[in-house]
UniProtKB/TrEMBL annotation:
The organism's taxonomic lineage, starting at the top: Bacteria, Pseudomonadati, Pseudomonadota, Alphaproteobacteria, Rhodobacterales
InterPro entries for the chain: ConA-like_dom_sf (IPR013320), DUF1349 (IPR009784), UCP022704 (IPR015987)
Signal sequence segment: none
Entry-linked Pfam families: DUF1349
Source organism of this protein record: Roseicyclus persicicus
Taxonomic superkingdom: Bacteria
The name this protein goes by in its record: DUF1349 domain-containing protein
């Protein structure tokens, strides 16, 4: 379920990557990252993202895994308007555990996390854009789409797709085995029915 990515384009191509019918595999460059200003006082826009253009309402679904080891190793999904307006959601290694992590950047970045443990295994994310709002959900152990974040995001043209980076090293490997892009899902924000594949 990766056919859509055949027409995607790289923001900052990684030093090594491959796309087959089974998986997109990415090996990150040295000290790559997405962050803007808050707390650390720097701007980094060097992470890797394979992006498709989007307009209006949509839902993007991603299944992914990674060899998380070093501080801030991360993989997941990016929605991007430009260098000052973007969202990244996925797994990020911090404090010795893998965290479900969301960074929302509107001129400056913020960061929210939910600790999963040292070995999270493959994860599923769902990002839905509805007008000027974005809903980010993760498929939890109870097979429900758990709400991670509701955030404002500018309407108009943007890009979405898998992302990976490694702020403290190079050579982090991430694998993306499903990516779909389609109409916005109609499920309720706090839906408790079993999660569908997308």
């Amino acid at each position: 379920m990766l056919a859509a990515l055949e027409s995607a384009t790289w923001l900052n191509p990684p030093p090594a990557w491959s796309l087959t019918a089974a998986a997109l595999t990415v090996e990150t460059g040295d000290r790559t990252d997405f962050w803007r200003d808050t707390l650390y006082g720097f701007r980094r826009d060097s992470g890797h993202a394979l992006l498709l253009p989007v307009e209006g309402d949509f839902t993007a679904h991603l299944r992914f895994d990674g060899d998380y080891a070093a501080l801030y190793d991360q993989a997941g999904l990016m929605l991007r308007r430009d260098g000052a307006h973007w969202i990244k959601a996925g797994i990020e290694q911090s404090d010795g555990v893998a965290n479900l992590s969301v960074v929302v950047t509107r001129e400056a970045s913020d960061w929210s996390t939910l600790a999963l443990g040292p070995s999270p295994g493959p994860q599923r994310l769902r990002l839905t854009r509805l007008g000027g709002a974005v809903v980010i959900q993760a498929r939890n152990a109870a097979n429900r789409w758990q709400l991670l974040r509701v955030a404002p995001f500018p309407e108009g043209p943007a890009q979405v797709g898998p992302m990976a980076c490694s702020p403290e090293r190079g050579g982090f490997r991430a694998r993306f085995t499903e990516f779909t892009l389609g109409p916005a899902v109609s499920q309720a924000l706090h839906d408790e029915s079993p999660a569908s594949p997308s």
